[in-house]
Amino acid sequence: MNNTLTPIVARSMLSYDPTKGSVTWLVNRRRIKAGTIAGCEYTDSSGKRYRTIGINGRTYSEHRLVFFLFTGNWPSNEVDHIDGDGCNNKWNNLREADAVTNRRNQRRLITNTSGHTGVYWHVRNLKWEAKIGVNGKFVNLGYFDLIDDAIAARQLANDQYGFHANHGIERPL
Helices (DSSP H) in the chain: which residue ranges? Predict the structure, then answer.
């Protein structure tokens, strides 16, 4: 990513508290006073909440900006929120991760109706279906009479394919 923002400029404008995960302004900006929490919250198309911060006409994802403030370098990959809360930017909750690793720590989608990631009611078969996405393809784990058996098959596959323990749990409010 080609950024003109340097660590020196960013650190002269913003302060980051790694234990609270908060970013505050060090300088007055138009109607915003120094000491005010920087940025605002938004919700992406999947329903996940994040924070953004505008600097010099450009909008930055707060978690990427936090990585930059803390390390002095832009992340070369994605920044994963370990607990799945896109607004929790405490340093111990962030890690640089490739896209596959980040997706393997994805929360349950808001469109999920079974209550369990990768478990679906298959209308034609009148059974519970379990499947998992691996390397861009879906792997069918089987059809089950009982939802608990489908959930167990999916959990076994999560472990087998190296998904994070948080994968598929209910998303934070």
Answer: 7-13, 62-71, 99-103, 147-160
Neighbours of 152 (CB within 10 A): 15
Q: What's the pTM?
A: 0.72
Domains of the chain listed by start with CATH number: 7-102 (3.90.75.20), 107-160 (3.30.730)
Cβ atoms of 102 and 141 within 8 Å: the answer is: no
Express each pLDDT in 11-40 by its tens digit: 999 999 999 999 999 999 888 999 999 999
C-alpha span between 61 and 54 (Å, rounded): 9
Question: Could you give the CA distance from residue 53 to residue 59 in angstroms, rounded to a whole number?
Answer: 6
